[in-house]
Specification:
Number of strands: 16
CATH superfamily of the largest domain: Peptidase S8/S53 domain
CATH topology of the largest domain: Rossmann fold
Strand content: 15-25%
Order of helices and strands: HHEHEEHEEEHHEEHEEHEHEEEEEHHH
Number of domains: 2
Structural class: alpha/beta
Number of helices: 12
Shape: globular
Helix content: 25-40%
Largest sheet: 7 strands, parallel
Length: about 500
């Protein structure tokens, strides 16, 4: 049988499989096929076979991390153009709108049952998955502790607990470092965030390369493709306040108030999809202008704070593609900090991307007494070398910025994560050679994490590690101490030949 006849034979079998309600050899997700039959079209992610990071062209000896990032982006884009070319042409010929991603080698489109049958028969397609709406269980604000910016607030307790003010006293507040957030959006002109927003020069705002909206439908709070940072929940603004917030008056809520920040909205009022998550991660590796054109890897952030999850229970079945995106960000020299989630206190409750990935720096939550929060998710995580979470940070009753221009308290590993992102900015600011080297930053935090007095209140053992074993699968290596990490970083270059 000729190759063309084989393909048509496969196509006939796929069409028959879809019509009968079964998937074709695992290539088409059964729920997706059912949705396409029921609704006429269904949101789909067409996953290509090649998900490995492509080889990067050789670079001159001594090339810096930005040159390496540019080479990586070029390789990823070229790989997608070559491997997706026929697929894109097929979609174009049928007038099917689509969104092609290079960071994970997938294509998003709304497809009919007939489209699914035809695409499943294509040689370059590995499988076709749904793009479900994923409701993220985000922390809610404590309405009993909300105040206007005229209220007096000393340095936030979590900022003080990790010893950030001691680093400030050394003349380091995060200058020269960019922190990014992927979240519900941001109220960029909040008094604690405006001065630190990379798109603000003191008199005018330029949102090109500093903001991207992956939400393409309007809701009651934000327009579709918002041309300026918009927060339709409050969660994102709160996290940004913790990594960089300071109103230069009475609200010192952020760990790195000298750093700059940028952002991407990857959730629609707390609801994300695999496509919106991947879109934001792609933008982070090579930010674009507001027309989503002219990508520039040199404008990528140094650190990304992630307080979201792609839960399997909500239908997130494309974890390997999200993993590819995370891996490529880290290989591009970006520290990817991820919340462990709030499903504790049981063991093995770190279950969702991106917290479960080896290259994510996964964060648990502690309270003001250095006890692990009951809600903080625990490890172990299957197929991960070492423990999860990696470290912990303050995440209970965290006071930070909130839209439109007020402050409130929230609790969650979502709140712990930006403490670590801000702390990383302080280290990179103090020792610029740490920029582009996320492994070195992670090692500094592991080596200097506070363990004395840091406890697991339920005195449990997870994955064979007890609360008196360090590191453990409840708290990781301990609660971060950024001043201790700072002192170690400036004392001598870190030997990374024996990474933990």
């Amino acid at each position: 049988m000729s190759k063309s006849n084989v393909r048509w034979h496969r196509l006939s079998l796929v069409a028959l499989a879809i019509a009968s309600g079964t998937a074709w050899a695992g290539q088409i997700n059964g729920d997706l096929a059912a949705a396409a039959r029921r609704d006429g079209r269904a949101e789909a992610l067409i996953v290509l076979k090649d998900q490995k990071t492509p080889a990067v062209a050789s670079l001159p000896e001594g090339a810096d991390y930005k040159a390496k990032r540019r080479a990586l982006v070029n390789a990823l884009v070229n790989r997608a153009d070559a491997q997706q070319g026929g697929l894109r042409a097929w979609l174009d010929s049928r007038g099917i709108e689509y969104q092609a991603f290079w960071i994970a080698n997938v294509v998003y489109a709304k497809l009919s049952a007939a489209d699914l049958a035809a695409l499943a028969a294509r040689d370059e397609v590995s499988r076709i998955e749904p793009n479900p709406t994923i409701k993220v269980q985000l922390p809610q604000r404590d309405a009993s502790r909300t105040e206007s910016p005229t209220g007096v607030e000393s340095i936030a307790w979590g900022v003080d607990k990790i010893n950030a003010p001691k680093v400030w006293a050394e003349g380091v507040k995060g200058e020269g470092v960019t922190i990014a957030g992927e979240d519900t959006g941001y109220r960029w002109d909040h008094s604690a965030l405006k001065s630190q927003y990379r798109g603000w020069n003191g008199s005018t705002a330029d949102h090109n390369y500093n903001w991207h909206d992956a939400i393409h439908t309007a809701n009651s709070s934000c327009p579709a493709n918002s041309p300026q940072p918009c927060d339709d929940h409050g969660h994102g603004t709160h996290t940004a306040g913790t990594f960089a917030g300071d109103d230069n008056a009475t609200h010192q809520v952020g760990v790195a108030p000298g750093a700059k920040w940028i952002g991407c909205r990857n959730m629609n009022a707390g609801n994300g999809t695999p496509a919106t998550y991947i879109e934001c991660m792609q933008w982070m590796l090579a930010p674009t202008d507001l027309q989503n054109k002219n990508p520039d890897p040199d404008k990528a952030p140094d650190i990304i704070s992630n307080s979201w999850g792609c839960t399997d229970g909500e239908g997130c079945t494309v974890g390997t593609e999200i993993k590819a995106a995370v891996n490529n960000l880290v290989k591009g020299g970006i520290l990817f900090v991820a919340a462990a989630a709030n499903d504790g206190p049981n063991c093995s409750t770190i279950t969702d991307p991106p917290a479960i990935y080896q290259l994510s720096f996964t964060i648990g939550a502690t309270d003001s007494a250095d006890k692990l929060a009951g809600f903080s998710s625990r490890g172990p995580v299957a197929k991960v070398k070492g423990v999860k979470p990696d470290v912990s940070a303050p995440g209970v009753n965290i006071f930070s910025a909130y839209p439109p221009n007020t402050y409130t308290t929230m609790s969650g590993t979502s709140m712990a994560t930006p403490h670590v992102a801000g702390a990383a900015a302080l280290l990179m600011s103090a020792v610029p050679s740490l920029k582009g080297n996320p492994a070195a930053v992670e090692k500094l935090f592991r080596k200097t994490a506070q363990q004395d007095g840091v406890t697991d209140p339920v005195n449990q053992t997870c994955g064979g590690t007890s609360p008196t074993t360090w590191p453990n699968n409840m708290i990781g290596y301990g609660r971060i101490d950024v001043y201790a990490a700072y002192k170690k970083a400036i004392a001598s270059p870190l030997d990374l030949s024996n990474d933990d």
